Amino acid sequence: MKLVKASSSPVVKPEVTSPKSEQSEVSPSSGSDGEHQ
């Protein structure tokens, strides 16, 4: 029972950070690309 709760917690946390991290990476990436060009 404890393993299932712990697995659910970390699984949801990384999933939420995945999309946030991707958006953050695209923001600076786009700015750097525009400035370099």
Number of strands: 0
Low-confidence runs: none
Gyration radius (Cα, Å) is 16 Å
Tell me the quaternary state.
Answer: single chain
* Cα end-to-end separation: 54 Å
Gross morphology: rod-shaped
Biased composition (Polar residues): 1-10
Biased composition (Low complexity): 18-37
Region (Disordered): 1-37
Write the layout of secondary structure elements.
Layout: H1 2-36
Question: Any overview of this molecule?
Answer:
Residues 1-37 are annotated as: Disordered. Residues 18-37 have a biased composition (Low complexity). Residues 1-10 have a biased composition (Polar residues). By secondary structure, the protein is an all-alpha fold. It contains 1 helix and no strands. The protein has one helix spanning 2-36. The longest helix has 35 residues, at 2-36. The chain is rod-shaped, with a radius of gyration of 16 Å. The mean pLDDT is 58.
Observed structural traits:
single chain; 0% strand; 1 helix; 37 residues; rod-shaped; 95% helix; mainly alpha
